[in-house]
Amino acid sequence: MDLRAIMFLLLLQLVALCYARPGWDQAVDNENLGGSDEESITETILRMNNGSSEYLLEGDLVIPRARTAMKCMNKKYSCLWPKSSNGNVEVPYIIVDKYTNEEKGRIVQALREIQARTCIRFPPRTTQKSYISFEPKFGCPSQMGRMGYKQVVSLQRFGCVQKGIIQHEVLHSLGFYHEHTRSDRDQHILIDWDNIQKYQRYNFKKQDTNNLNTPYDYSSLMHYGRTAFGINRAVTITPIPDSSVEIGQRRDISDLDIIRINRLYKCFNYEM
Ligand SMILES: [Zn+2]
Description:
Layout: H1 3-20, H2 41-49, E1 56-57, E2 61-62, E3 89-90, E4 93-95, H3 101-117, E5 120-121, E6 131-135, E7 150-154, H4 163-174, E8 189-191, E9 237-239, H5 255-264
Parallel strand pairs: 3-5, 4-6, 6-7
Antiparallel strand pairs: 1-2, 8-9
Bound molecules: zinc ion.
Residues 60, 168, 172, 178 line the site of zinc ion.
Enzyme class: hydrolase
Pfam families: Astacin (PF01400)
Keywords: Cytoplasmic vesicle, Disulfide bond, Glycoprotein, Hydrolase, Metal-binding, Metalloprotease, Protease, Signal, Zinc, Zymogen
């Protein structure tokens, strides 16, 4: 074999190696995908997103290149979905074909529940420029607010396609941060900084949030669990003054989550 042929074979091998690394579109170790009944929404999201090649804020927020997620709520209405003349707010979506019909049904059902109690409407996308694309990429990250173009809500199969997580990620794309980073959180929770990995501490930075005159909500679908980013699952978030209050639920969108959507989007005919 001449030198050029050998070089060519080496190059081929290198390319194959590059594609073999786990990442987007490749399922990670199946053993880690099952989850358990005890797992909180936080743990599921963080577990599914662990190893993502994207820079993720607070574990599941993709930082867009065009602007930072931090500024989103500050720029007046720039990251909100626009209101139609009929008072509803349309958030067009598509679900890519990589899901089974059953999984697609779960996504549609999760959207319907938000739609039933708010003025947000989720029509299947036709030609709209801004829309959500549900895709089984790596983990379950989302972007903050409306981006103005196709924005991917990743729902990796066998882990992220469950109601609580679907709604959690959709709430991010409607413009909501995590409850534990609310501007007034220090009156409601204690953060144990010593139990958080140093390089994960930025995930607990307070955001300059618009709290929409709603009380702090321990039962929010956007609240992380006690051991989020904890070293060896150590407690990082403790409710005060009553430390026994449940946080990190993943079952349902809370009443206050609904009220916040209605206030942010001025859904006057709904619960505000
Ligand atoms: Zn999140």
